[in-house]
Amino acid sequence: MVRVVLPDFLQAHTGKGRDIEVNAGSYAELIASFEREAPGFEALVSKKATTVIDGEIVPDPMFDDLREDSEVCFLPKLSAG
Amino acid sequence: MAKTHVSTRINGQDAEFLCSPEQSLLEVLRDTLQLTGTKEGCSTGDCGACSVLVDGTLVCSCLMFAAEAEGHEVTTIEGIASGSDLHPLQQKFLDHAALQCGVCTPGFIVASKALLDEDPDPSEESIRYWLAGNLCRCTGYDKVVRAVQDAAAELRS
Amino acid sequence: MTDAAEFKYVGTRPVRPDGVDKVTGRAAFGADFTLPGMLHGLVLRSPHAHARIKSVDLSGALEIEGVFAAVSGADFPEVEDTGEMGGEGGGSIKDLSDNCMARGKALYHGHAVAAVAANSLAKARAALAAIKVDYEVLAPVMDLDAAMAEDAPLINEELMTQGLAEPATKPSNIASRMVMGRGDVAKGFEGADIVLEETYYTPTVHQGYIEPHACLATVNEGGQATIWCCTQGPFEVRSYSAAVCGMSIGSIRVIPSEIGGGFGGKTTVYLEPVAIMLSQKAGRPVKMIMSREEVFRATGPASAARSTIKIGAMRDGTITAMSARMHYEAGAYPGGPVPMGCMSVFAAYNVPNLAMEGFDVLVNKPKVAAYRAPGAPQAMFASESMIDELAKALDIDPIDLRLKNAANEGDSAPYGPTWDAIGLKACLEAAKAHPNYRLALNEGQGRGLAVGFWFNIGFQSSAEVHVNEDGTVTVIEGNPDIGGSRASMAIMAAEELGIPYENIRVQIADTENAGYTMVTGGSRTTFATGMAVVEAARDVIGQAKARVAKLWQVDAEMVEWSDGHAVPKPGMNVDQKPMSFAEIAAKTAPSGPLLGKASLNARGAGPGFSVNVCDVEVDRRTGKVDVLRFTAIQDAGRAIHPSYVEGQLQGGAVQGIGWALNEEYVYDADGVQQNAGFLDYRVPVASDMPMIDTVIIEVPNDAHPYGVRGVGETPIVAPLAATANAVANATDVRIRDLPMSPPNVLAALDAD
Q1: Are the CB atoms for C216 and C229 separated by under 8 Å?
Q2: Hey, where are the domains in chain B?
Q3: How confident is the model at residue A65 (pLDDT cuts 50, 70, 90)?
């Protein structure tokens, strides 16, 4: 199972807690499964979140495979100076 | 409004220009004479980016009327190197990475030259107080002070 | 990862490629461009901090001979509120547009309400004076308490707070609330031997770049625009200007000048869309330069913030729980750095129970802009002051307390991800071992220490490596060089190509001559664009080897690249002499130019940690704090050009010390800034500062070919608390409100 961490606005959108586990072999599958359960998830992620996979900020996660022990964290969107 | 005719010397050459009474030397240097190496950071004499030498004295060109240059000798950053040889201050600023964005650098080099012309062996404290009128927001002054110290040593040798 | 000893150029300190132009006055900055027939543009700014704009009459301005154009909010297209902007910035394009030119209401003193273009500055000034604006003056809200008061005047009458547990029922000045955390803080505090709670405040400050914003725009009759400007992000200027002016991105070309500092403040637009609109109306080029006063009154200050920190710990120093409740001023539009504040505040520690809550609050001040690690200096001033208070309460050495709780590789960051290799413990150990940490202090002197953290980012960059006919190389990239990055690019290219650094020239191209490259910001340039340069160099080497293989009539894998030459692979029994780039370029000219390219979306920017040690002396009669010594220690992953890494550490330290000791916006009761100049807004000057000692720690970041981590932003985070902790150590008085200016320090000493 992939470990997923959701920020407050995605917790509110999905009705789930901060730390959850999802069965997914790829990032695309992970997003699709959230989208099925809570439509609008993908749009919210692209608008308001930064994706971190296994400790790395990943700007283009859509083609990433996930392992059984992968960790996907959605952070509130980062901005910087 | 009638313009004033001004005869002066800039960087070792005779120079003439027309200016309005309210124009600063900085404005004329940059906009009329295209000597844009002298920078405008505040126009109130607080940042030193517009530092030039007038008869060897360090001046904020934003605080001096252009008409006051009549009969005087002005040195800008463009007049610091001799021919194709950089002034030791210029070389040491490069060697010490004493600039990051570089916009304050012309002012620092002109101000430092005025210091070393007057005091060939300044202490760190003298350098810091002399350059207190030149603001740098990038370097924290450490490498600037070291570059001036090193240039002074080279000029003395 | 290659061993440092194997590097020929990485880690050396050559003169930067653009250096000579910058010490001789040749380098052209934002205000240094001119075009024939150019007009001068000026902005009319609101004299009120909060006012309804009932009407703007431009006719008087347009009647003046020599005035070619005048615009107000009505001349700008309405922009749809699409939510978040592209690129990395927060906020919406609609707000950005409104901030460039007010519609309906002026939201801060200095907000643009109209603009003119004339054939002289004198006429432009006369034109501004001839514009009639009818204002209904409203009460301003100038701080967090006033903004959040029950009956506070509303800055945006339609703003409903986002992120509340129960949806908001009426508008307020609180734009949003964010919560984050893990574990159970109540339980954590309950089980603690000691619990402390305090509130900390940091004032509104400005980035203080020495070069004011400037641009020159020309729009031709076919609707094609060209802009010269000083910016950290030419591609962002292009997309933001296109959106604000209702143009296509392809119709705008942005040519970045040299840039005289930015620190985050030049990642957005103020003048550029206005200059485009004026040029369009006038049919002439329009140049606009801000005065220093305009820079203070109308551009990116950093948020003032108030943070309440609660901490629970065991007697041995083990922290059981931490909570933070933080309010950030956003200025006149939503978009304060709340997310970064919530995520950074406890990033240095591995604590099971955490709760972070942040609020984004509107006030009648300029819309805040990014400032070096936005949100983190405010947050970590609070948390790192509190750690110091805890160390004192428990009588534990502040380094030992931090080491006991410090985050490690494999721990979970407060905001979710598992830490990869990080340099926090190495920085703490280096601080402990540093001779400066053991120097004796005299009466009235004190030592303080604090940790800094920043995320660092990667994202989109492009680069090209062109091999010239004689074997010299031109590198083309799109990140304005704000602190010596051309040198880093040339070093990495030299290392890859195996040719002398001096044979490489690095060119910062405009938006039509470089591939898309995100802003010089987020500490991303040496990391992400450096990665693109390395990939482009590898691309051109691959092409060169393929050509040589053809010449030698061998398979491509029989040719290797070594020390700037194509050579036969050892043991392959190819009897050929090594060929340099010059020889390859000459011999294979019919195959076309040798040109390597890369465009990428860099992942894996490694986070940066720092530790600062500050020694101060406090004059109890005047309240003046002198910094005696400052040691900045930071993990750079790998320092490509160590002098410029040191420069980032030193410059960030001094900016942070300025924030701690002197800098703040001072307002009168009407919301007018009283210190909008460098005389009264006092940034540190040379005589205020000692030398800044640096230690570069290198815990390589595996995501970068040379191990680079961004270094630009982290340095400003730790100095605020390091200085405050030093003052507390010197005086036994804890100051929790910045700045620690002489009157504030005196008042604190007197109250004690």
Answers
A1: yes
A2: 4-77, 88-156
A3: very high
What's the pTM value of the predicted model, to 2 decimals? 0.97
- Note whether C18 contacts B136, CB cutoff 8 Å: no
**Residue reference for tokens 């927060």:** C90
What gap in Å lies between CA C667 and CA C661, rounded to an integer?
A: 18
Give C92→chain A minimum CA distance, Å: 11
Residues B11, A79: Cα–Cα separation, whole Å:
46
Q: Compare CB distances from A81 to C339, C372, C417 and report the shortest one's residue.
A: C372
Identify whether the C-beta of residue A45 lies closer than 8 Å to the C-beta of residue A32: no
- How many domains in chain C? 2
Which residue in chain C has the smallest CA separation from A52?
C417
Of all residues in chain A, the one with the smallest CA distance to C376 is: A80
Which distant-in-sequence residues (6+ apart) come within 8 Å of B36 by Cβ? B30, C25, C28, C29, C31, C32
With residues binned 3-state (H G I as helix, E B as strand, rest as coil), the percentages for chain A, rounded to 5, are: 35, 30, 35
Residues C502 and C629 in one domain: no
**CB atoms C182 and A48 under 8 Å:** no
Chain C residue numbers touching B44 (CB-CB < 8 A): 292, 677-679
Contacts of residue C448, defined as CB under 8 A and 6 or more positions apart, other chains included, come to: C388, C613, C614, C616, C721, C722, C723, C724, C725, C726, C727, C728, C729
Q: Is residue C419 part of a domain?
A: yes
Q: What is the CATH number of domain B88-156?
A: 1.10.150.120
- In chain B, residues with a C-beta closer than 8 Å to the C-beta of C691 are 124, 142, 145-146
Positive or negative, the CA dihedral C45, C48, C50, C56 is: negative
* Last residue within a domain, chosen from C602, C637, C660: C602
CA-closest candidate to residue C175, choices C8, C15, C361? C361
Do C612 and C747 fall within a single domain?
Answer: yes
Question: What architecture does CATH give domain B4-77?
Answer: Roll (3.10)
Interface of A with C in 9-28 (CB under 8 A): 9, 12, 18-19
Measure CB to CB from residue C418 to each of A8, A55, A77 and give the nearest one: A55
Name the residue of chain C whose CA is nearest to B129's CA.
Answer: C687
Strand partners, A20: A4
* C20/B137 Cβ within 8 A: no
Look at residues C553, C577, C602 and tell me which one is the last residue of a structural domain: C602
Q: What is the mean pLDDT of chain C?
A: 96
Q: Which domains does chain A have, with CATH numbers?
A: 2-76 (3.10.20.30)
CA distance C75 to C245: 9
B62 part of contact set with chain C, CB < 8 Å? no
Across the interface, of B37, B49, B131, the residue whose CB is closest to C210 is B49
Residues of chain B with pLDDT under 50: none
Kindly list the distances between the CA atom of residue B9 and the CA atoms of B28, B65, C731, in Å, as whole numbers in the listed order: 14, 15, 56
Cα separation, A19 vs A3, in Å, equals: 7
How far lies C703's CA from each of A45, C109, C527, C699, in Å? 24, 46, 9, 12
The distance of C329 to chain A (nearest Cα, Å) reads: 16
- pLDDT greater than 90 at residue C51: yes
Q: Are C419 and C411 in contact (CB under 8 A)?
A: yes
| Inter-chain contacts counted by CB atoms under 8 A, chains A and C | 108
CB contact under 8 A, A59 and C460: yes
Chains B and C contact (Cβ–Cβ under 8 Å for 3 or more pairs): yes
d(Cα C425, Cα C404) in Å, to the nearest integer? 10
For C140-199, the pLDDT digits (tens) are: 999 999 999 999 999 999 999 999 989 999 999 999 999 999 999 999 999 999 999 999
Do C523 and A80 make contact, defined as CB atoms within 8 angstroms?
yes
Residue keyed to tokens 């002396």: C617
The SS3 call for residue C460 is: strand
